[in-house]
Amino acid sequence: MTVHTMSATRTGRWRLAGVIGDAGLPEARAGAGAEWELAVDDGVITTLRPAPAAGSSPPTALVLCPPLLNGHDHGRGPGTVDAGIPDAPLEEWLETLDRPVRPRGQDELVGLAAGAMLRAGVGAAVFCVNPTGPDVVGEVRAAARAAIARGIRAAVAFPVLDAGGDRRGRRRDAPGAGRAAVDALIEDVERLAGELTAEVTGSRAAGLVDVQLGPVGPQWVAEATLARLAEHSAATGRRLHLHLLESPGQRAWADDVYPDGLLPAMDRLGLLTERTTVAHGTQLRDDELALLGERGVTLALNASSNLRLAAGVAPVARAAARVRAACLGLDGLALSDDHDGWAELRLARGLWQAQAHRRVPGTAALALATSAGRAAFGAAAPRPPAEGRLADLVLLDLSPWRHLFGHPDWPLADIAVAAAGPAHVAEVWVAGTQVHHRPEPSSAPAPRPREVPA
Ligand SMILES: [Zn+2]
User: Fold this and answer.
1) 14 C-alpha to center of ligand 1: Å?
2) Is 384 exposed, middle or buried (0-12, 13-18, 19+ CB in 10 A)?
3) Per-residue pLDDT tens over the stretch 23-52
4) Which CATH number among 2.30.40.10, 3.40.50.300, 1.20.140.10, 3.40.50.360 corresponds to the domain 12-66+383-442?
5) How far is the CA of 444 from the centre of ligand 1 (A)?
6) Gyration radius from the chain CA atoms
7) Per-residue pLDDT reduced to its tens digit, 414-451
């Protein structure tokens, strides 16, 4: 396996037009407005502070941002259009998901997806492995190695599905796989996590991957199994990642099978803690969102996916008001199958504004896509860029909007949230290594010769 080559760039010096998100030390941010200087030496940020007077140096349009975080994904390679899987209501769509017109292995699926995410400035992603064959351990291992090889931070969720016979959902007393089988699965997960850790210990990829337990959704996993996984999470700290109330069908199942409430039942099973991430929550009610907030659960909203799978409208405003760790995920179903975290952020902010009937500031929107989702990555979570820390950062080139710099209506975060995209991602650093550098204009095809006035 190739883990960052020795020639990987780990050192650099930049002058910045500013920092956004929760980058920089709080006391240094008081100096915002001036230019900043950034230095990375052997992977560690050694300088991140307002610069002394600019002097004769040319003005810069580079802005430092924490990497975007993709709080829920599956690593679907170039996307479901490429795989020949048309959008459809979730339950119909699931029937076609395992019959791709263009099948690929997990290494290719996750590798291609991770590469595209990094080019867009997404520095970490949760990959919930959808197995394509019987060797689940092998597929999760391949997914994790593909993420490590690309240099993205990754939470890899090991799928657990033992009562999925009826797509509409299990009975309340469905037996599931039984204690012995679940314990064996947990052993597999722990063995794999240990193996992956050993493979990267001492290398630059150490700490890039966190293996998590992935009960696919409460409607497809037996209660006893959910309780056993929650018990293991409490005992070891291993995180849980599950889908929750994604579609109207799942809402109807929950209300039918749990007339006294699905979320209180999940709470009694020990599932709702700060070690758990739930994805979607498209159909959650306010009291349910409030319970997630009280328990410190991370909620990954997936606005594009919900539209493509006819699941509903992501409750961005209601979640942001109730769940501190409400964040964003692409679910491998970005609107244009391009893993563009900026377009997703723009969509989420638009929904938030439309649902709240007010303007949402760029910093609040940016938090959805950066800081709010860090817990979902467990031991692989990036820390906010600051002096003394490994470099996990994105350098955005906001030069097309340089004329807005300093305008009172246009803080830098608002420019980024309103207009940035993969084309403006100049560099991406993950865990101290430069993992993406936008090609220099000089490497583009030579322009057609033309007359230049003397
Ligand atoms: Zn999903």
Assistant:
1) 38
2) middle
3) 876 544 544 557 899 999 999 999 999 988
4) 2.30.40.10
5) 37
6) 22
7) 999 999 999 999 999 999 999 999 987 655 555 554 44
